[in-house]
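--- STAGE predict ---
source: upstream dedup step, 1 unique chain passed
mode: sequence only
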Amino acid sequence: MSARRLTIGMFTDSYRPEINGVVTSIAGTVDSLRRRGHRVVVFAPAHDSIDDRDPDVFRFRSVPFPFYQQIRMAFPLPASLMLSLPSMPFDIVHTHSLFFVGCLGAFMAQRRSTPLVFTYHTRWTEYAHYLPLSSGVTKAQAVWISREFCNRCSEVITPTAQIGHVLREYGVHRPITVIPTGVDLDAFRGGSPDAATLRSAASGPLVLYAGRLGKEKNVALVIDAFAIVASSMPQARLAIAGVGPHESKLRAQAAALDCAPRIEFVGALDKPDLGSYYQAADAFAFASTTETQGLVLVEAMAHGLPVAAVDCPVSREVVPADAGALAAEDPSSLAGAIVSLLRAGDAERSRLRSAARRAALPYSIDRLTDELEALYARCIDDRPAHAADA
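--- STAGE serialize ---
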């Protein structure tokens, strides 16, 4: 497939410089496809804080989303103007959202008889709390929109089999392929300070959480669990990497605890700096049950970091039993899982780290780009002959 050079239109309502798992997934995919010689044209919201030098990133005017300032609402050009542009002969259109830019991509694919692929990155039913409407209504709407959008695609990609099952329950009947987000370990190297410096500064076991600080990520449970851990392990520390709309409440929660001096919010980290934390930590704590994959779980394991996570279908699919510990969704249970990892002896720790790295091997960015190329080829080859001539 690598000898077949494609022109791919990527349409997304979330892209650099935003920091979240969806952006990490899309940016990693774009970079990997370009390294293989494909032309990838990205359509995304504009940001005041970024000046794109990439001629194949097309930005639409945007404003902050009123109920979640960290993401943008884009306002695509009139669709008729986009359709009149002859310089975009896409072999395939790949959308990553259900909103303005994603819908524009779907519209263009339909009008130009171009195969349409959609990656279902986010369980939108779990984000109703960001909207000033009844959660029951918005969840029902999220299911309806997800079903209708997916059923207009050539193929749908889900990061885990569990999310594929969820879409089937929604009524999606189009082909669904599981292609997780890949991890490129080279992107995490060269952080400052390095892992040895971070370990020395911690002066005891280091627990790490990394991810967006949103209510749906359940970071409050990680903090409550760490308070229990700290009561029995006085030298333990917790590092929280990330930013998000729930950050102020999480900081207030941590500040009220006796172990507050041992909880550090380190902010948003570039990949190399986050890599240092992955290497320095002794356990990764994760409490979200709303993920489609939980990319940070894979990143942690790829660095040999064992995981303590709340047990749910996705974490169960991603984290094998020998690479960490799954817990019930309560502070005592998650604390017990974290303590079991922190108190592992040298032999057990070595085994856990080896198992974590082994569990992450299927998530190699090169392997998963192979699968994505194969899916693109299948969609292109399967389109009707009259569409291929359009």
